[in-house]
Amino acid sequence: MLHSECTSTLSLVTDELIPHLKDIGRGVEKEGLRVKPCAGIADDTHPESLGSTLTHDSITTDYSEALLEFISPKQTNIDDTVTYLSTLHQYTLKNIGDQLIWPTSMPCRIDGEESIPIARYGRSNVGTLKHVYRQGLGVRYGRTMQAIAGIHYNFSLSDGFWKAYQTKFVQQQGEEQTVDGFGEGGLQDFKSAHYFSLIRNFRRYSWILHYLFGASPVLDSSFLANHPRHNLDKLGKNTFGLPFATSLRMSDLGYQNSAQEELHISYDSLGDYVTTLAKAMKQSYGPYEKIGVKNGEQYIQLNTNVLQIENEYYSDIRPKRVTKSGEKPIAALKERGVEYIEVRILDINPYLPEGISSQQMRFMDAFLLHCLFSQCPQNSDTRCTEIRGNQTKVILHGRDPELTLERNGQQVPFKTAATELLDTIMQTATLLDKAHDSFEYTSAIYAQQAKVDDVALTPSAMLMQAVEQGVDFIDIAYAQAEKHKMHYASLKLTQESEQDLIEQAAKSIKAQQKIESEDTIEFAEYLSNYNAS
């Protein structure tokens, strides 16, 4: 399903370009709370056997000391990515005693905000900066929101693809096209422009992801302690939610952020994105000025600006570039352009041990390629309103059989819009199957169409069905956590994999110690330099 003003460049994907589709690079960042047998957040420090959270490449923490984050390396084989995530789960569960890894995006039982320990990264300046940034998130938005977990999906195409695609594109569009028009220019400029086109189209069509993969229609009552004016229904003794919701994690309830409501970060081009984001990072905000940077001698936020750092901007999708040591992400993007994109809206599927499956990844690849090949103009204010409206509808009411979406100012039944979109995505899935000599990508589309035809197959409906049978959210999630732990215990962690992770842990601890030993200035000076850069 394309908007009326959009065109497709699928015709450019000819036989000589198709083989490059085998070289899609992907990585997964999967979060999960460590929880105690009582279903409360673990209050101990990150186990030393898992390594340093500052320097470990694969096992770290996000906001909380208890919020694990597993990071798979960039890989071109989907099954290898799933296997790597499985290995990280196996190794971690073996090293956290009787604790479990919480299998849902919405958190376990929360005994007040102070029960959520903020992550620590050692005594180096960079480690202290990471900790203070998280302190800032806590004082700005509350710790409860930061206990929410998710899955980030990193996606990139090879230089071989981009060179071939640029050649075809310029031939079709003519030599007079500018870089902003996606025509001739340096390869990196071309890549960045098209990644931003992908991002804009992702925002148009991402409502389908909330429906297909949303898995947070309910939450525990303890999450609402600081949300007295919520509009959720009581669905169980300690369970609240909305009857047709798909992803409360992505609703305003999950990401309340009044300071960012007035931000207008532009995705029209790399230059506009960098400029508008940099402005927000330098723009002071009155309520944060009242909080102050320090409480006595303790730093509680990095600065009083709308954004302490780039990552504080809660976007559904981000353009990314691997940074050099000490380099800010925005500087890396400005200097060297977009390297890959990071999808940030995926819930953890509690019914999957890794929280995500190879089938879902194949769908994501086909979906993101559809977004790349759908050449749409930049989003007007009117179109942005339509985009946000459709996203909100599906997040809060996605399983409502009467749901309609807005398309070009007209109301369209949800099932019609979803089926038309999946039919269009099937074209890119066919190309991927041709590249891989398989039927797995088209099969992934058929599996998603089945969810459109039968809402009961969606993970949000599966979770809601259990609630409707009288089981509280906490009990459902805890049972799944135990099930996953038993699953991993039944698998044999190879001696090679275990030894590799033991060595990674030891190496990361030495790397942290080295960083700490090389600091030459006090943190106050380090922070001043950081904020000034």
Q: Can you walk through the features of this model?
A:
- Helix content is 45%, strand content 12%.
- By secondary structure, it is of the alpha+beta class.
- The chain has a single domain, classed as Creatine Kinase, Chain A, domain 2 (2-Layer Sandwich).
- Strands 2, 3, 4, 5, 6, 12 and 13 form a 7-stranded antiparallel beta sheet that branches. A 3-stranded antiparallel beta sheet has the order 7-9-8, with helices on one face. The chain has a two-stranded antiparallel ribbon with strand order 1-14.
- Helix 10 crosses helix 13.
- The longest helix has 24 residues, at 495-518.
- The chain starts with 6 loop residues before the first strand and ends with a helix.
- Residues 175-184 have low confidence and may be disordered.
- What is the fold-level CATH name, i.e. the topology? Creatine Kinase, Chain A, domain 2
The number of domains: 1
What's the helix count? Answer: 17
Structural class: alpha+beta
CATH class: Alpha Beta
The major sheet is characterized as:
7 strands, antiparallel
**What CATH architecture label applies?**
2-Layer Sandwich
**Fraction of residues in β-strands:** 5-15%
- Overall shape: it is globular
Overall helicity: 40-55%
Which residues form runs of ≥5 with pLDDT under 50?
Answer: 175-184
Radius of gyration of CA atoms, rounded to a whole number: 23 Å
Please state the average pLDDT score: 93
Please give the alpha-carbon distance between the first and last residues: 44 Å
Got a strand count? 16
